[in-house]
Amino acid sequence: MGSEDVYIVGADMIKFGKFPDRSIAQLAAESALGALDDAGVTINDIEALYSGNLMMAAGMVGQQIQQEIGQTGIPVVNVSNACATGATALREGWISIRAGINDIVLAVGVEKMAGAGMLGGGGGPSKGIHPEGLLGSASMPCVFAEAGMAHAKDYGTTFEQFAQIAVKNHHHSTMNPKARYQIETPLEEVMGAEMISYPNTKLMCSANVDGSAAAVLVSEKKLKELGLSGQAVKIRASVLTTDPWTDRDEVMPDVSTCTRNAAAQAYEMAGLGPNDLDLVELHDCFATAEVLHYENLGLCGDGEAGKLIDEKTTWHGGRIPVNLSGGLLSKGHPIGATGVANIYEIVTHLRGNAGKRQAEGARIGLAHVIGLGTCCGIHILEGPPN
User: Fold this and answer.
1) Helices 61-69 + 24-39 axis angle, to 10
2) Which of 239, 262, 282, 306 lies at 20 to 30 Å from 381 by C-alpha?
3) Is 333 a known active-site residue?
């Protein structure tokens, strides 16, 4: 029987951006080697590799990564699960340690997205991809626009409140040297940007970028053997859900149920509640999505997300800062890497290494991603002993 506890002892991500001259394996290798260095181990110590990638899912990206960092004959598992891909890869590594199969594994998420129009929007303070934006279509901009409008209808959420999410996340990104964009976007600029699918303007859409992130996971036994307790972040909960079947006529995906179910399971597994969280990295693929997830994750009651925005509760220095990295809107959203990148951000804060954007005294953090609105990965992490 394996250890009950699993720890992250190494984590890294590259600066997200556009890298037309670098292969997907080269991008992944940079973060993988960084995570190994952070843990003070080498690829020779790793017992299994879990690789998350969406766009080249059939290309055995994990094996390509090994060709860059060392082919040691270990098992490689390639994972593809929409925007939850990276979180799923990390969770598979967590499962293998919990099961007693491995004591130390490497999880990597990587994607080359720059110029891709899969999510639409393009985002960021530069030219992006224009989705067709037809109301009622199944494109992601329209799915989350409709979800935002439903929230506005039910609770009176305003265009300005949605836009403040982009103002906040772009502000946070100015303190994150690894974010794709590090530019302030005042409210008037956000609201006046090109409309993609109301109420989301271009600056309220995630940025398609290239990127990778990686983490080294160990059992409690291996943690003691390596003597890394001082930098170890405990995984208090790891949960993956998908939408249950419902008898409904709506064509649009339900973007809330899987997150609500995952959050309930994660809080139970961790023995914690939303009031215990010191920071959150959630899936702000669009500004409207972040508003919905405040309620889906229990950060406030239903209909109270607007109040959190107005009171700046989720800003740096607020009671529960959200997306201090800059989020997907500004840090960027390389799909396969996002889940691990969110983990990296939480780990950085829990270790007290986040610099100007540090969440003061952070002990407990939650990382969240959803894939196409129909699967959700949540991890709750606890920082090293003081």
Assistant:
1) 60
2) 306
3) yes
pLDDT in tens, 119-134: 443 334 433 333 333 4
HSE at residue 273, side-chain half, CA atoms within 13 A, is 3
The position carrying tokens 């103002």 is 167
Cβ-based burial of 211 (10 A; exposed 0-12, middle 13-18, buried ≥19): buried
**pLDDT tens digit sequence for 318-330:** 999 999 999 999 9
pLDDT at site 56: 84
Integer Cα distance of 293 and 300 in angstroms? 10
Q: How far apart are CA 221 and CA 232, in angstroms?
A: 13
Q: Out of 293, 316, 333, 368, which one is annotated catalytic?
A: 333
Q: Token pair for residue 271?
A: 């023995």
To the query of whether residue 205 is one of the catalytic residues in this protein, the response is no
Cβ neighbours for 239, distance < 8 A, ≥ 6 positions apart: 262, 265, 266, 269, 376, 377, 378, 379
Give CA separation, 46 vs 39, 68, 71, 303, 339, in Å. 11, 15, 11, 46, 21
DSSP state of 16: P
* Span 5-26, average pLDDT: 97
| Shared domain check, 224 and 80 | yes
Domain range for residue 214? 6-115+209-235
Which has the closest alpha carbon to 6: 105, 91, 94, 92?
A: 94
One domain for residues 59 and 149: no
Residue type, 175: M
- Do 269 and 189 belong together in one domain? yes
Best CA proximity match to 25, nearest among 128, 101, 110, 94: 110
SS3 label, residue 206: coil
Contact between 327 and 170 under an 8 Å Cβ cutoff? The reply is: no
Q: 116 is written with which tokens?
A: 């891709």
